Amino acid sequence: MNQNYTYAVELKNVLKRYNELVAVNNISLAIKPGEIFGLLGPNGSGKSTTMKMLLGLVQPEAGSVHVLGLNVKDDSVAVKNLVGYAPESPHLYEFLTGIEFLDFIGDIYGMRAEEKQTRINEYLKALQLEGREGDMISSYSEGMKQKIALIAAFLHKPQLLILDEPLNGLDPRSARIVKDLLNKLKLQGVTTIMSTHILEIAQAVCDRIGIMYQGNILALGNMEELRQMAKLPSSGLEDVFLKLTGTGDVKAVVEELFK
Ligand SMILES: Nc1ncnc2c1ncn2[C@@H]1O[C@H](COP(=O)(O)OP(=O)(O)OP(=O)(O)O)[C@@H](O)[C@H]1O
Ligand SMILES: [Mg+2]
Predict the structure, then answer these.
(1) Domain ranges of the chain
(2) Whole-angstrom distance, CA of residue 236 vs CA of residue 110
(3) Does domain 9-221 have CATH number 3.40.50.300?
(4) Is the pLDDT of residue 250 over 70?
(5) Contacts of 114 (CB under 8 A, 6+ apart)
(6) Which residues approach ligand 1 with their CB closer than 6 A?
(7) Whether residue 129 has pLDDT greater than 90
(8) Which position among 59, 60, 152, 216 has the lowest Cβ density within 10 Å, counted as fewest Cβ atoms?
């Protein structure tokens, strides 16, 4: 891979507000090529907004965003060519069949017909959609739609994957296949940034994890470093997460609710 950059993703002092609301509060983040980076954080903490800024889908108000050595502000088309994105609520063309949609996506990226077909078939098989590819997307289950969105992100062999809650709705076997795939792609130098609420997945798959809270990156590191930050030396990610995001007293909240 021809790499003339140190970081696959580099955010510097990035700020994004929606009217008065600060969605992303002056964050800086650098992710190395080949890393699998997990973004965690409670609902509304700024994960999706951060990911959208990496693609130029949302413009930061201040700061700079570089992806694969390109400034997203100046080169957003080039960036989109090199990146695979699976949004948290994908908009699929429901009146197309699965195969028609993936074919269309392959064409957008200018894939050669033969390679496109081979890759689509491989992914349909791996994610157990074989036999359903000729059905309209509107007839798919949520998990099946999610698989189509993931295949659409992987199809053109992107160097960076931006996956917003990619394993949502996937059955355990499919989730495992996607996790294995991310690890395989990592060996080829592909970088992944993914958000998830499933802490076991982050723990199992991610090299490093950033915990966002109210638009800030509250903590950043590998599991060992996060444990130390939370002063919970032998805990799993759930305890670390709850402690760092200040919602550690979940038990009290639940007790209050069911009083
Ligand atoms: N298009 C928008 N217009 C106005 N406010 C927005 C918009 N998109 C996001 N926000 C606000 O920005 C904040 C961050 O939202 P974001 O979607 O980035 O959170 P998130 O961490 O991805 O949450 P979740 O875990 O629920 O997916 C939230 O307060 C949200 O209401
Ligand atoms: Mg989100």
Answers:
(1) 9-221
(2) 44
(3) yes
(4) no
(5) none
(6) 18, 21, 23, 41, 43-49, 88
(7) yes
(8) 59
